[in-house]
Hints:
By secondary structure, chain A is mainly alpha-helical.
Amino acid sequence: MGKRIGASTRDLIITNFVAIVAGLVLSGLLLLLLDINPIQVFSSALTTLFTDRYMAAEVFLKATPFIFTALAFAFTYKANLFNIGAQGQFYLGAVAAVSVSLLLDGKIPTPILLVVVLASTLVAGGLMGAGIGFLKARYNANEFLTSMMSTYVALAFMNYLLRTVLKETKGEYPQTDALSEAAWIPRIVPGTRLHLGFVIAVVTAILIWVFLYKTPMGFRIRAIGSNARAVELAGINSRKIFVIAFLISGALAGAAGFTEVNGVQRMLIQDFNPDIGSAGIGIAILANANPIGIIFASILFGAISVIGTMMGRMPGINVPPSIVSIIQGSVMLFVITAYYVRAIIGIRRDKKRLKREEA
Amino acid sequence: MREEVKGNWSEIEIRNVSKYFARVVANKDVNFTIRKGEVLALLGENGAGKSTIMKILYGLYQADEGSILFDGKEERIANPKDAMRFGIGMIQQHFSLVFAHTVTENVILGAMRGIIPYAKAKEQVESLASRYGFDVDADALVGDLDVGVQQKVEIIKALFKQTTLLIMDEPTAVLTPQEADQLMEFVRQFVADGHAVVFITHKMKEVMEIADRIIVMRDGRISGDLRKEDTNEAELSRLMIGRDIVAPEKVDFEGRDHGQLGLIVENLSLSRGKVKLLDDIDFHLRPGEVLGIAGVSGNGQEELCETICGIRAFDSGSIVLDGVDLSELSLREHIDQGIGYVPVDRHRDAMIGSMSLAENIYLKFSTHDDWNRHGLIDANNLRQKTLESIEDFDIRAPGPDVPAGNLSGGNQQKLILAREMRLAKKLLILNQPTRGLDLGAINNIHTTVLQARAEGLPVLLISTELSEIFALSDRIAVMYKGRFMGIFLPRELNTERIGLLMAGIVPDDLAHVADEEIRAEVV
Lengths: 359, 523
């Protein structure tokens, strides 16, 4: 038994590594088509990543919201529910963050303000999630569709506010005023943009793991995901669990609004981080919805994102900005393929071992 | 036109065939011969590899090692179409019929191309049916037919494809005793016509009745290849199980005076549309008594269990357990009343295969305060209780943390029973608790049932296995179309009588008994 687990961990590391390399090679080939030397571009990007403290910190900065949106997807996924609307819940979180910050900054001390803002983002995202869960529980509405469509509602709502009550005092662009320093999340590495939000994200991931695997409610959520009828027959109301799972999921996505508004952008602008919801889905799948795995997968995606940004800024080389999406997409494709390859390798190995034992 | 059928072989040899699934050896070095004019019984417990070896012959699986020879010539069977070309037909345990189509349409499915000469096909179907004495309407929709008739459609379907070797996988599982006799009659006639039959079963009685030759399988291997006249049931069961099984002893519950205690069900009815799922059910199940409910499955047994357990609402009547009216209680409150329930389909209703043994036990206790501590699952306590269950119920598992789905069916069932016995303080309901299990596990479960009875628990036992009903029950009810055909003492019934009752007919010599009230005075 122990030997088999060892082998499967080895498989996991090797196949994922090969998948990531394959994704990079594929995007490198596309660079070749543009007459750009991919080896030169990648090696220069990687060198910067490992030598420049600022750029290294950027990786963790980018990973922070990914952790939250990936946790949001993973959480409902454990209950075999699909929250595709993390993007919308993030928008509402961002709106809550900027509104509360603008309203209260300077009036109460920073630590208390930040806690209040964080709480408001949890409530904003959580309410939106709970609404989706309620529609599922009460009317059996397909949560995949309602959560996806809710993103557009949230987006329109945010844009409406940015053009009306939240519009900057200058009245020029659809964006809010900048937050004063009292509402900024403190930075943890001097000389970089990395802020405390990353630590909060990691701690959250660990807490979510504890919740899912060590508490009765977490157990019920996972059990519902595996066999809802058996859970119902054990006398547990699955509808209530749908609402709770979506509430927590939405709150997690809302928290990304806190880290991005108060930690990075320090204001809210139109078209704010439009891809972190979808990236979260991919990261959660990559990590097999394991909260701890999500931390590492998010860092990987943060790195890809930073590498892409650096490549776009390299002097003398005209790398199109869409290359980031291509790298992310192809890495994802290979990582998911690797999942199936692992399954096949595992079955082959078991069969071989059986034959050997029987012989 | 149909393809040429090469069914004129006289024997098929299965030589050194092995088949490995990811974690189990399904077949290992299997060798035997199938001959024309012979009924070959494949006898073995569930999971012994009987179906697998036949699925290899039928082209549904590919062997990892070994070969299949027709009259000494090796042939490759890549899919069922190849198998049919050699005249091999197989009737699976789960039929492959299209319910919305007529009998004729089902029979010709896959055997025709271009424009279908329906009238001609219908004629052929009718002539095949009459030749073997099957009473089947060629124009009837298959979905409207009883299971027994559907099986005949499957047989006609095979015959239509000029089958010379018919493989039947547990064919009597869905039949009443009378229908099973008809099937045996067909098998004899078919073989007398110079064809071959492979009869897969785990029932000794059928083997002794029908087989010419018997292959016994155990753990994927052949443990015996015998002629019927050279063997007996004792030898076969030894070959099949590998050890002797001691039947559990019946000890009666001491306190017999319990008044209105136990489960009292009165005038219980439930309809879905115009169909009566439960039709005026009345009975009083006393502490320390096992009430067996016999019947072909699908006659309301599951609905009865589920209404008593609070899973399903009912239209009228009452259910009272130890003086408590259950009708107003929620599902959770039903469970808390002390009802243990082992449903017929554990994978659907009772178990989470991907979760550990401990988590499966915990499933029904997650809301109980004494199973949790400081808001967390009390892991030590849970582990302790799981180990207890593993010990007490002889669950063969590497430990409490392995996924329940990795266990054999028998051990999974013991796990569910262990959990439900923790809950069953006032009532135990078992719906076909030993379906598909090996004899060792069956014996184990029967012991638990009789122990519960001896300790004074009322037990409602639904089963389609008559031997089980007779072995365990104090009284026997027969269910047909949602109705009790009567409640009887075991000595009042025999296989023939119970068979008729299962088909909805009250035998003349029992009419006076069935008409009586719920026979409350009889214990």
